[in-house]
Design goal:
Blueprint (H helix, E strand, L loop, with lengths): L5 H7 L49 H21 L8 E13 L4 E12 L2 E12 L6 E8 L19 H6 L3 E6 H4 L10 H6 L11 H16 L5 E11 L1 H12 L5 E5 L19 H7 L22 H6 L5 E7 L7 H10 L1 H6 L16 E4 L3 E6 L7 H14 L5
Parallel strand pairs: 4-5, 4-6, 6-7, 7-8, 8-10
Antiparallel strand pairs: 1-2, 2-3, 3-5, 9-10
Helix pairs in contact: 6-7
The structure holds beta-D-galactopyranuronic acid (GTR).
The site of beta-D-galactopyranuronic acid has 8 residues, from helix 8.
Amino acid sequence: MRRTSSYTLAALMPSLMFCLPWCLGAAEPEAKKFFKSDAPDMPVYNLPNLLTADDGRKIVTCDDWKRVRRPEILELFRKHVYGRVPATPYQKSFKVANEDPNAMDGAATLKQVDVTITAGEKSLTIHLALFVPNKVAKPVPTFLLICNRSPENIDPTQKRKSEFWPAEEVLARGYGIAAFYNADVDPDKNDGFKDGIHGLLDGGKRPPDAWGTIAAWAWGASRCMDYFETDKDVARNKVAVIGHSRGGKAALWAGAEDERFTIACSNDSGCGGAALSRRQSKEKETVAKINKSFPHWFNETFKTYNGREEALPVDQHMLIALMAPRAVCVGSADQDLWADPRGEFMSIALAGPVYRLFGKQGLGESLKMPAIGESLHGDGAHYHIREGKHNLTLLDWKCYLDFADKVFGKAK
Ligand code: GTR
């Protein structure tokens, strides 16, 4: 394994690590000044408490979490970060536009499904591509990619193959693999929310907590899930939603909003995804930077936190905790300092107290990152950091598949 520069290592691997004195079911200790030693050159940051309800009550059982704290946190994220889906009624329909039982030289069945959403006079279609392996018992666990790269990356003909959506490799592991192009739901541009699903459902003046584009993509993943529930080849209780970068932000939000997803995999998702917002570093993307470059991704209220991360009522460990007790995966790349690998790791590690309410261990109690090139397959939570740049690679997929094997009891 090639060594990274000492500068990179210093940013990723703070020398002083320590374990948390959390125990099963106990309330999390106050986070005040807790992260001072997170990295030598890093300002102190405090995190909002996961396990204290808005009225000050301590959350000590999984039932309290489900009834009180989870709905509160979900609502805080809707209000302050991703936005709220409008209540406008719509119809949806599914049409299998093409089915090839002999795809990939007989190894798989391809279904190309039009998921059409209609509201009043307007409609849009999400073009869902789904491969299921032929020679295995059905229904199969299935990965759904929210594709934020060009549609060639999810080519259903497989004339163009891409590591971003490695259909053959995933099928060979006994999984189904599906994808939709995020722009089918909402084009990734700042057009005042005229196009995509916003053009269908928004209507009238948008309130400060109206949904942004990330929330729209997450919503699109749920509409694909609606289709999966009708397809006897897909194991509806074994669907993993996966995304890279902006798609990884959407995958986490999809898993938070829609508990039908059994796993959420967030690859190199950074700011507004897995990375803690309050953790500062020179290299990383901040709330102000992301809102300036991508004003359409989040709701309007999120912009009031530009340069004021400490005022946010949530941080991203709380988003990851919304997955509990379902499984969550976070992947980082060591050179992707813009996405802040250390902050991505901290979020998933610090979601642990909620997993422990459910009798799971999450990533465990240590805040020590794995070595570059290694995976932590925890109990309900997976983290890996690989060498290299910002990308979703075959190696990342292999880590997610290995962990899914464990979650679904397929691991040998
Ligand atoms: C960057 C953006 C990141 C990340 C990335 C991507 O420009 O600042 O938040 O989402 O794009 O999606 O590849």
